[in-house]
Amino acid sequence: MKHLILIKYGELTTKKANRKVFINMLAKNIESLLKEIPFKISKDRVRMYIEVEEQYLEQVTTKLTKIFGIHSIVICYPTETNIDSIKTKALELLKGKVFKTFKVATKRADKSFPIPSMEFNNVIGGHILKNIDCKVDVHNPELLLTIEIRKEATYLYTKEIKGIGGYPVGIQGKGLLMLSGGIDSPVAGYMALKRGVDIECLYFESPPHTSLEAKNKVIKLASIMNEYSGNVKVHVVPFTKIQEEIYRNVPDSYIITIMRRMMYRIAERYAKMRKCKIIVNGESIGQVASQTLTSMVVINNVTNMPVIRPVACLDKLEIIEIAKKIGTYETSILPFEDCCTIFLPKHPVINPELEKAILYEKSFDYETLIEDCVKHIDVITQFENNKNQDLL
Ligand code: ATP
Ligand code: MG
Hints:
Elements: E1 3-9, H1 19-33, E2 40-43, E3 47-52, H2 57-64, E4 70-79, H3 83-95, E5 101-108, H4 117-131, E6 135-136, E7 143-149, E8 154-157, E9 160-165, E10 174-178, H5 184-194, E11 198-205, H6 212-226, E12 233-238, H7 240-249, H8 255-273, E13 276-280, H9 293-300, E14 307-308, H10 316-326, H11 329-332, H12 339-342, H13 354-361, H14 366-375, E15 378-382
Parallel strand pairs: 5-6, 5-7, 10-11, 10-13, 11-12, 13-14
Antiparallel strand pairs: 1-3, 1-4, 2-3, 4-8, 4-9, 7-8, 12-15
Helix pairs in contact: 3-4, 5-10, 7-8, 8-9, 8-14
The structure holds adenosine-5'-triphosphate and magnesium ion.
Adenosine-5'-triphosphate binds near residues 180, 182, 204, 282 and 288.
């Protein structure tokens, strides 16, 4: 008999007007992330059901725990909608389990079923008491048996697996994530995905000053993020010339300020080309000189596009905790140098002045360089359910 996985929606049940759009998007995301597995999906306003052979149950469940828009995942055991079958199935389900107290919760979606829910709790509860050595505890049971009575079948379950919540990826359109090899930006990307923003990644590389390993690390991070999306791409910006020009022409203390203004200019231009509505990055207030509020003002000044900084108000330890949870931490701490670190001056300015930044930028023709840079951005990866996982 086929197994049934019941999916309870996340936050989307509260958005009444958009519910249909949300549900359809979630179904589409599930279909795309499970595309190598045979399954059947059906949905209604409050639930989604996935029918799958037992052999795929674990694989499907694991994948579902990484799909945004899901509040919980329940593996259900189906039986016919009649009292005897439900009794038999209930015992079958509980027999191997260890528990001293239990409670039955019946949900009667099929109102033509002759016994009201409360009464049916007693019928099944009584049957369990007669056959298994245990007690009823309605307030704090060790085991909760839920019975959903529907016309086509009745579903029994005891375990609810927590989903990751959020909105289905893509519901908000796309954002361009400035993805470095650090800890912060993959976490920022994950958090944006969680709010339904589809992510494309932009990585600035400066060969030969930065290595191939550094780039592969970024690709690996993107592939981990792709487990939560299925759509992640990495675009690589050839940033060497601009960085060298900055290094040659700009006073030491402003190198990072100007470099980041160039990154934002490129990101904005490219975001528009890729139809991304926002820029997302891993800046965190006060973390380094370029992330003081004054620095952010001067750097942000080059773009009108919204820049979303999901980790702006988190402590480093909080960011690390998320990085560990989502699986990016181990890769992020690999020791390859990024373009931000190789040209790092001894004393970067903490309170830069906009007028000075503009003045220093006039010392070289950055417009032409940026244009050239954007033309040569390389889309190196389109992930297909993490076939690119083992690049490192
Ligand atoms: P760490 O976790 O070590 O702080 P980081 O990636 O946050 O690493 P920062 O120097 O703090 O590095 O940079 C702030 C943000 O700027 C990053 O989170 C990222 O969004 C963006 N950024 C920095 N370097 C690059 C790069 N080479 N390519 C793309 N984005 C970058
Ligand atoms: Mg950082």
